Amino acid sequence: MKLCKIPTCIFVALLGAALSIPAIADEQAPQKKEGKAAAQPGEADMMAMMMELAKPGENHKLLAHSVGNWTYKVKMWMGPDTNAAPMESSGSATVRETMGGRFFVSDHTGKMQMPGADGKMMDMEFKGMGTEGYDNVKKKFIGSWIDNMDTGIMMSEGTYDAATKTFTYHADTEFIPGMKVKIRQVVKITDNDHHIFEWYEDRGAGEMKTMQIDYTRKK
């Protein structure tokens, strides 16, 4: 059997899918009255559209702001009273672009105090990894997050407000079986070397801010 390089195989597969979609649609669509059939895009048009949608654009450049090395300080509140003294910790993060500027991957490391099995606070090493991008099809910013405190992958979608230089992401997660939580994440770009991340949770009794992270670019 003749083998092909991975990129070539992917291209051939995409081309095959593009060529087959109109035929499948014709087979599955109910018969229409003569003269009223909707026009199907041609194969060349579909391939051109797919190639255009695959290009990184201005929205991807907005995310490129985060590329580099950062230090961060974390404040966490266990209850709804943000005037109460928060738990504080710190760490560092590295952000890099990948896939030709289509996605941005961040690696976070730090230490934080968490209650142990006996209820006493103890230092724990924290590691997390995020991926961000802009989906040209959905016309939304997208993100994923994993860390060593969980076994799930949190997926989020968001928007950007140019007037306030703020990203707002929404996600649904379930930290404990049966306890679904709505998440709102806000990223405020203060300047080229600083941004603020805010985390809000709604567990069914109203939204509350439970975390804030202040990022400073390393010089």
Q: What is the fold's blueprint, element by element?
A:
Elements: H1 6-28, H2 43-53, H3 58-63, E1 68-76, E2 87-98, E3 103-115, E4 121-135, E5 140-147, E6 154-161, E7 166-176, E8 179-191, E9 194-202, E10 207-217
Antiparallel strand pairs: 1-2, 1-10, 2-3, 3-4, 4-5, 5-6, 6-7, 7-8, 8-9, 9-10
What this model shows, in words?
The structure is a single chain. The protein has 219 residues and is an alpha+beta fold. It folds into 2 domains: 48 residues, no CATH class; 160 residues, Beta Barrel (Lipocalin). Helix content is 18%, strand content 50%. Strand 3 and strand 4 form a beta hairpin. The termini are far apart. 11% of the residues are buried.
In short:
Helices cover 18% and strands 50% of the residues.
- Count of extended strands: 10
End-to-end CA span: 54 Å
Radius of gyration: 23 Å
Structural class: alpha+beta
The outline comes out as globular
Task: Throw out a few tags for this protein.
single chain; 219 residues; alpha+beta; Lipocalin; ten-stranded antiparallel β-barrel; disordered N terminus
